[in-house]
User: Fold this.
Amino acid sequence: MRRLFIALALVLVSGVASADDAFVAGNRVAVAGDAKAAAADFERSLAHGWSAATLFDLGNAYATAGDWGHSILAYERAELLAPRDPAIAANLAHVRADAGITSPPPRTVDRTLAVLSADEWTWIAVGAGALACLGLVALGWAYRRRAAGMLVIAGSLAAALCGVAAARTAPSADSAIVLARTEVRLAPVATADAVFVAPAGEEVRLGAEHGNFFQVHDGDRMGWLPRAAVERVVPSLQ
Amino acid sequence: MMKRTPLLVLAIAIGVPAIAGAATARAQLQPAQLAVGNPAQLTITVDDEAKPPDVRIPDARVRYTGQMQQTTIVNGTQSQALTFLYSVVPDKTGPLDVPAIPVATAHGTATTAPVHASVANAPANAPGNAPASAAGGMPAPATGRGPGNAAATGDAGSHAFVRLELPKKKLVVGEAVPVTIRAYFRAGTSATLEGQPHLDSDAFTLSQLSDKPAQTEVELHGERYLQATWTGVLSPAKPSTLPLAVELPVDIAYRTHVEHQHRTLRDMFGSDAFGGDPFGDDAFADSFFDQEDPFADMFDDGPVQEQHADLRGSVGTVAVSELPVAGRPPGFTGAVGTFAVSMDAPAGDARVGEPMTVTMHVTGTGNFDRVAIGGVPASAQLKTYELKSAFAAGAKPLTGDKTFTQTIVPTQAGALEVPPIELAYFDPGKRAYVVAKTTPVTVQVAPGAATPGLATTVRDPDMVPNQLSPGEVHATLAPLAWRPGFWALPGGLLLVTVLLAGAGVWRRSSERTRRANAQAVDRVVSAARDEMHAAAERGDRTAFFAAARSAVQQRLGTAWGIAPEAVTTSDVAARSPDPELLALLEHADRVTYAADGATEPLDRWCALADRQLAHLEAA
Assistant:
């Protein structure tokens, strides 16, 4: 048992060490001007876990290399972990502009809700639910019934509203980024006619899958893209 | 006398539909029948603010040539349309499919419908052109003015015509020259433009056409005309020797003239207009009333003629030659004209790792859209970033200042020489290539800060450079709500809540039951005591002791948790050996089962029973 614990600890320590090593190596080659090598090092670092800083540096490396699709994908992922980081937002907007990607301005309600991340809204909802539970327990024990009743109502309402906010601010499971400029085809075959061209960095919604193709929705347009041409923003659902 | 006011109507409206709400985009390719190598014009019209979309067409070369903005006022409602112009040169025969093109507008993305055309082999001879100033197949209406019928859309003397003015007729491919297009509409003619002026030849492109024509009134051959003037830039796309004409689609309406006999004011008002001579000045009256009707020539009073016409104005044959291959410099990008290039001293803190901005200017006359320079090359002494350009048009057509800015970051301290920048262009006046150069600039670079080079981690100095600490590492990017393990927390919380609240409810329910049972026992005991006292007053020993025993059994049965009837004297002796209580129960047994004949008063037993019951109740 003791040996198993030591082995597990060594694995964990070596994992962290190699992640840090890759991160440092990535920055070293990035400073030296080798953006592609830096991107490879940052990707290696991310294999050990997701970090907003590593994703941000990865986005910078891909942007320097002129790879808009991977750069925007990295910034989008970094923004999931650090939604209020102005550096991420600034570089993402910069690269989007360079890539010619335009998106409609967010609605007022979405802009307001974006002050907190989906996880933060979720925790607030859980806290409000806990208060409602406390009120329920107090009601069960007939302890200060009036106050307990108010606590149940207020807590439940707050939990429901924060839950809705969390759902609204959470990234869509179908959201994906086009990695390179690709023709979107009418059917899931390579020889099908092109419906439109999806530029690198364009955000699309993934639909059905067929063979090596994803059905994608880009606004009102729809078509099929090769799997290799898109990548989900949240990769764990793949 | 009926008073008539001279009315000159010229309604100029560009045929763009006013569409409210979401932006729409339309694509049009002209001509529909294309030839390999011959440029066609693709127009994308958007009724909203937009940037030129990136257009890619399979098997064709596409080049953005300019844009036009048009304003339409219909019934007081103003709408604007933006038209982007592209030159499309097919590379092979067969169908040519222009895909749906997304255009990012201020109110969302509008997408054009796909356009399909066919491409044939280039003809041996370019298509001929109609003679200059000919009406586009339109029957000449009768005007009744002068002998014979003048064409409605001929040249001077007709109701409408158009002229194209070109500064020279010998050009080279890629050269840009200013052109002026003037359309003339005779006074009294109502005209509605059905589109912008366009060239009849696909060997030329017409761009930077003014949004709205400048309007002024002119007199030609004694006739008054309203002159609409457009300015633009003409650029030949391929070598040719062809007649060149401009066409302007227009709907015109005018009144045909009805011949009147020569008449004077005396004819109109009669010989005695004022019923005598009010002024007594015959000379004045005669001279006034004998003059011709001054308004007779201003109005045509016949029926209104309406017709569509393609006004056409030719400039004659234009010879376009190919740019010479011999002597073409390596950096030549197609710039044709006369240019000069200069470079400002780098701006910014000349320090290792600190970005500086180098600004280069190209001024002159020519096709600035093809003007490009290589920028400052990267070297061991400096890192360079992408070149950016901006163009400020000059007062005259085709003149301006194209500014290139580039960020450089010195990587070594000491003297840094920014090498000269070259611009290669073709001078059509000299008919030779020219390479213009800037003078080299030397900058003294100071040593950098403690952490130089971080700026090199981004492609643009406006971006935020790399972060040097990886920070917190997360196992997943998925939000909390997507992780199954997360739901254990609210689920557990809910479970604990249910258990705790249920326990509270159960406890309160048990308490209520216990109280209800105790109250029931109290009621039964109270009734037994009442019966006991009543029997004592009556002297009914049997009833007294039965009631006393029943009351004691109720109390002990409740306390012990067994049925009251199951409580016996022996149980009491075993579990609660109180002598008085035992005596009371034993005596009650004797009275009930042995029928003792004792006659002693019941007062002592009654007091004993009350005392024991009070004791049990308190216990």
